[in-house]
Structure formats: structure tokens, C-alpha cells
Amino acid sequence: MVFAKIVETEKEYDDAIFIRRKVFVEEQDVPLHLELDEYDMKATHFVAYDGDTPFGAGRIRIAEPTIGKVERVCILPEYRGKKLGNLMMECMEDYAKDHQFKKLKLNAQSHAIPFYEKRDYVITSPEFLEAGIPHRAMEKEL
């Protein structure tokens, strides 16, 4: 069974961090000190599983009272191309709606912009580098 959920236990948190390390640190060469940051303790984390096997992660933190910042969304390479990023985003967006967020913001890696555009996010910035990777700011009204 494939599902995404809010992190509720230490094991689920460890699973989410494991996925982030695999994707961002090992695959994309993001320095560990940039990937694991001061917002991890304040954010709400999400993890996706295929049975007992974690394959996706993400987090939301409060940017402003009614605006959430979606961050660190990632899927392991072997699970990409199967629409599982949508599963992750649906879970995170449902959480945001349940918590009365009016808008979500995110910094999308430039190659992922079409994915977010299909989910009704719009570009709000020129391209910029974050951890050496091209990004664009995007947002979505909820």
C-alpha cells in the first residue's frame, strides 16, 4: 500500500530525513549543513511509504500567519515518474487547508516547475541559485 502522512513518530521523522539525505545530499550534492537546518525543529514533516519502505518526504513551516512554506519535497529516484509526487503534495496541501493556510509558497528547482504548475502553483520570481541549484519561487492560493 502506497500512502503519505504527517510525521508522528521518531521513526517516521528519521525516515523522512533519510529520504532527504539520499536525494538532496547524496544525489544532488547539497551540503548536509544546508539540507538539515534550523527550521527542521519548527516544521511539520511528511513522509511517504510503499508498505514499510519510505520513498518520499517534505515539510511545511509557517512563513506568515496564513502562509505556509513548502520545502524539501523529494521522491527517491526509483519511485519517480509514477505520480507519487502528487501523493506527497496532496497530503501537504490537505494539511495546509486543515490548518487554515490561505496560500502556500515554495522554491521549486527549475526542472520541477512543470510539476508544480500542474498543481496550480505560479512562478513569482526570476531564477535564482539555492545550494548551487537553479530555483524559482512559486505560490498557490488555497
If you had to describe this structure to a student in words, what would you say it looks like?
The protein has 142 residues and is an alpha+beta fold. Helices cover 30% and strands 38% of the residues. It contains 4 helices and 8 strands. The chain has helices at residues 10-27, 32-35, 84-98, 113-118; strands at 2-6, 44-50, 53-64, 67-75, 103-109, 122-123, 128-130, 133-141. Strands 1, 2, 3, 4, 5, 6, 7 and 8 form an 8-stranded mixed beta sheet that branches. The longest helix has 18 residues, at 10-27. The protein starts with a strand and ends with a strand.
Q: Please, what is the average pLDDT?
A: 96
CA-based shape: globular
The number of strands is 8
Can you write the helix and strand succession as a string?
A: EHHEEEHEHEEE
Q: Which blocks of ≥5 consecutive residues have pLDDT under 50?
A: none
User: What structural category arises from helix and sheet content?
Assistant: alpha+beta
Oligomer description: single chain
As a percent range, the share of strand residues is 35-45%
Which percent range fits the helix content? Answer: 25-40%
Rg from Cα: 14 Å
C-alpha end-to-end distance: 28 Å
Counted by DSSP, the helix tally is 4
Question: Sheet with the most strands?
Answer: 8 strands, mixed
